[in-house]
């Protein structure tokens, strides 16, 4: 199941405004050629502005918007640790919002490449910059989300054709339920090869190999 879709209507053409300011023709007798005077003063003003801009320092980058030349390296930190949060990286999280724009870079000025529309979907954080997190989805695509769009609750997506939910974390345990590909579960605990999952009151132990959203070495309660 595809859990993302291309963003629509992101880019918009900039067209000249219609019925905007119009130059006035003619003038009062004895005042010369106002059109020529306006053109001359406009040229002088443009020259003054150009000189002022050339002398002005470049605007400082904000915490949320890295300079273009550093955008490719903003996620680099100590190995295995997020440079902003200090949390392990990569790490799994889940989508908090019901709709979230995935951007090409860490900032509102970057274009939207697609939109996540499935709340609770597991995501993998692979980069950090300011209030932005670079995430990878179950299909392997990556982009930048604002940190408010994700949460630490752990979820898992069924990637096998069907996943058996067993009463105990053992391949010989009785099967209590079966889940189809694309179902998203809340993760309650994980052992070496198994995770206890739950959805709508149905729970059981699923093999890690049938899930996406948990690392092969992760063990937690």
UniProtKB/TrEMBL annotation:
Ranges for region Disordered: 1-35
Domain SH3b span(s) in chain numbering: 90-152, 153-215
User: Record's InterPro entries?
Assistant: DUF1058 (IPR010466), SH3-like_bac-type (IPR003646)
Q: Which domain of life is it from?
A: Bacteria
Return the Pfam families for the record: SH3_4
This protein's name: SH3-like domain-containing protein
Q: Which organism is it from?
A: Albimonas pacifica
């Amino acid at each position: 199941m595809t859990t993302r879709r291309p963003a629509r209507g992101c880019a918009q053409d900039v067209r000249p405004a219609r019925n905007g300011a119009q130059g006035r023709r003619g003038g009062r007798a004895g005042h010369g050629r106002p059109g020529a005077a306006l053109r001359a003063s406009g040229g002088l003003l443009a020259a003054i502005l150009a000189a002022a801009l050339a002398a002005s320092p470049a605007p400082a980058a904000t915490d949320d918007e890295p300079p273009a030349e550093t955008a490719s390296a903003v996620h680099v930190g100590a190995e295995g640790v997020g440079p902003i949060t200090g949390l392990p990286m990569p790490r799994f999280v889940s989508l908090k919002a019901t709709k979230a724009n995935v951007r090409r870079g860490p900032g509102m000025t970057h274009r939207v490449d697609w939109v996540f529309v499935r709340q609770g979907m597991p995501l993998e954080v692979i980069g950090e910059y300011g209030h932005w997190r670079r995430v990878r989805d179950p299909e392997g695509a990556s982009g930048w989300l604002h940190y408010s769009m994700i949460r630490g609750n752990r979820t898992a997506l069924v990637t096998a054709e069907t996943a058996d939910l067993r009463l105990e974390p053992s391949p010989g345990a009785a099967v209590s339920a079966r889940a189809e590909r694309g179902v998203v579960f809340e993760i309650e605990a994980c052992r070496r090869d198994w995770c206890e999952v739950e959805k709508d009151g149905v729970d059981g132990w699923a093999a890690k190999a049938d899930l996406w959203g948990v690392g092969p070495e992760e063990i937690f309660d």
